[in-house]
Amino acid sequence: MNEFKKFISKGNVVELAVGLIMATYFGAIIKSLVKDIILPPVGKLIGGVNFSQLKYVIQSEIAETSIGAADGMAEVAINYGLFINSIITFLIVAFAIFMVVKTYNKMKEKLEKKEEEATVTDPAPSKEEILLTEIRDLLKK
To answer: Was domain 2-63+72-135 assigned CATH 1.10.1200.120?
Structure first.
C-alpha cells in the first residue's frame, strides 16, 4: 500500500491525469469546431454538401410490410462523410499539438541557454586573488 501511495503522489502521475483530462475536452472542442464551424462553410463552397450526410448506401431501409411481420432492417451504408470529418479533426488536433510542443521546446531551449550563460560567467575573484593581483601590478611598476 505504501508503494502505491508513493506512486500516486509523484508529480508525473498527477500531471499525466491532468493532461489526459485536458486532452479529452480539447478533443471535444476540436470535434465541435470541425463539425459546427469549419465543415458547413466548406460544404457550402463545394455545392451545399453536408459532409456528415455523405454516404454510400449498400442496402436501404426495409419497412415493415404487414402487421406481425418481422421488424424492418436498418440501412446499411458506408459513412465516408463522417470519416472525412474525423480526418479533418485529426489534422487540426495534430497541428495544435505540434504548435504546443514547438512552443514548449523553444521555451525549454531558452531556459537551458540562460542556465548555461549563468554557469559560464566567471565568479567574482576572491579577496586573496584581488590582493595577489594588486601585488603583481605593483611589482611590475
So the answer is: yes
Residue 64: pLDDT band with limits 50, 70, 90: low
Q: Are 92 and 30 in contact (CB under 8 A)?
A: yes
Grid coordinates given for 86: 474525423
> Radius of gyration over alpha carbons of the chain, in Å?
33
CA distance 83 to 39: 13
Q: Report the share of the chain in percent with pLDDT over 70.
A: 87
Model pTM? 0.55
Query: CA-to-CA distance for 131 and 100, rounded, in angstroms?
Result: 53
